[in-house]
Write a structure and sequence with these properties.
Elements: E1 3-12, E2 15-21, E3 31-32, E4 35-37, H1 44-56, E5 59-65, E6 70-72, E7 76-86, E8 99-105, H2 123-132, E9 137-141, H3 144-156, E10 161-165, E11 179-183, H4 187-196, E12 200-201
Parallel strand pairs: 1-7
Antiparallel strand pairs: 1-2, 1-4, 2-3, 2-8, 5-7, 6-7, 9-11, 9-12, 10-11
């Protein structure tokens, strides 16, 4: 009987997390959905949560298991699940042992990395999920504590939310750059928080809200939306 290995498609903001392996030698430099082996008597959901906590220092919950089981060599078989991050997570770092690099990939970027063969059969379903993901809204704050509070409150309400440092067009001084909260929450929920915490909604229609690193144009007038 083959031992079960589980992998997590960690989805956030319309992108999935990929991890580059450092070992064994035949897998080094190639990419996978992070995870690990299920121990005897352990539920697959619990094993996946344990492995991601050990590898990435994050807490997750399984949304659903993806279709199919893939043989891995002669002794193992792989299942993969869609998972979401829970708790306080703003920046993920590789463990430096099993993985040396992490990337967030959109549905049109999945072919940019060299995936390990067992992970490849799950990518079509992952891409479909990313295409169906709710659009990501941005709330922008000049105070880091305000951004962290907004993200924390949105996650407490059951939405995906995380903080990223913004870049300002033409500005090189990192100390002047604001923080953006990216979330799949309804606009009204984010609107209330930016109004309360003195931020603004980034509402420009032409902006790709799933992109990371696009310079942010500062508003010349407040963009906060007030209720009549």
């Amino acid at each position: 009987m083959r031992q079960l290995v589980v992998a997590g498609a960690v989805v956030r903001g319309g992108r999935v997390l990929a991890a580059r392996r450092t070992r064994p030698p035949e897998a080094a430099g190639r990419w996978e959905l992070p995870g690990g082996k299920v121990e005897p008597g352990e539920r697959p959901d619990d094993a996946l949560a344990r492995e991601l906590r050990e590898e990435l220092a994050v807490d997750v919950e399984v949304v659903r298991w993806l279709a199919g089981v893939v043989p891995v060599g002669e002794a193992h078989e792989l299942r993969a699940a869609l998972v979401r991050l829970t708790g306080e997570v703003d920046q993920l770092e590789p463990d430096g042992d099993t993985h040396d690099r992490l990337r967030w990939l959109g549905p049109d970027e999945l072919d940019e990395v060299d995936w390990l063969e067992p992970d490849r059969p799950f990518l079509a379903e992952v891409a479909h999920e990313l295409h169906q993901a709710a659009p990501t809204l941005r709330g922008v704050f000049f105070d880091e504590d305000d951004a962290a509070q907004a993200a924390r409150r949105l996650r407490g309400d059951g939405y995906d939310a995380h903080v990223e440092r913004e870049r300002l067009a033409g500005e090189d001084d990192d100390e002047d750059h604001p923080w953006a909260v990216l979330t799949d929450a309804p606009a009204v929920a984010l609107e209330l928080l930016v109004d309360e915490l003195d931020g603004w909604l980034d509402l420009e229609e032409e902006q790709d809200t799933t992109a990371v690193g696009s310079p942010l144009e500062l508003p010349t007038t407040p963009r906060r939306i007030k209720r009549p």
